[in-house]
Amino acid sequence: MSNKLDHKLRNRSLRAARVRSKVQGTAIRPRLSVTISNLHVSAQLFDDVTHTTIGAASTVGNKAATGTMTAKAELIGKEIAKKAKAAKITAVVFDRGSKLYHGRVKALADAARAEGLEF
User: Fold this and answer.
1) Which residues contact 101 (CB under 8 A, 6 or more apart)?
2) Number of helices (H) and strands (E), helices first, in the chain?
3) Helix or strand or coil: residue 94?
4) Entry pTM
5) pLDDT for residue 90
């Protein structure tokens, strides 16, 4: 690790791996994976046993996704919860990746819970 950026990226991947080692999705209770970049928010439902994606929602190409990043995260939380209901899923395990459960991640989770998703 020669420079600061390498060190930050290594720590981020270690945090993501630490969360992933404890979170496993099944067909009954899939994994809700959240990805937040500088401009976009996305969420996916995974069945880790069969390695399939059950549903996905993203702000990329979404005309309704306007406003702050927190507002976008709330919108995606509601969308992914609706897609989970359509797939007859009521409970998920939450995979926050390398992010802290705070701010945008928390806004997405609270919006999904408000739509009836349990985790």
Assistant:
1) 109
2) 3, 4
3) strand
4) 0.88
5) 95
Dist. CA 79–CA 72, nearest whole Å = 11
Q: Which CATH number fits domain 4-114: 3.30.310.250, 1.10.1040.10, 3.10.310.70, 3.30.420.100?
A: 3.30.420.100
20's tokens? 């992933």
Q: Which of these, 47, 37, 27, lies nearest to 69 by C-alpha position?
A: 37
Q: What gap in Å lies between CA 74 and CA 76, rounded to an integer?
A: 5
- pLDDT at residue number 1: 53
Radius of gyration of the chain (CA): 15
Task: Tell me if 67 sits within 8 A of 49, measured CB to CB.
Answer: no
How far, in whole angstroms, is CA 65 from its chain's centroid? 16
d(CA 115, CA 111): 6
Cα 14 to Cα 25, 32, 61, 98, 99: the distances in Å are 20, 19, 31, 8, 11
Query: 2 pLDDT band (50/70/90 cuts)?
Result: confident
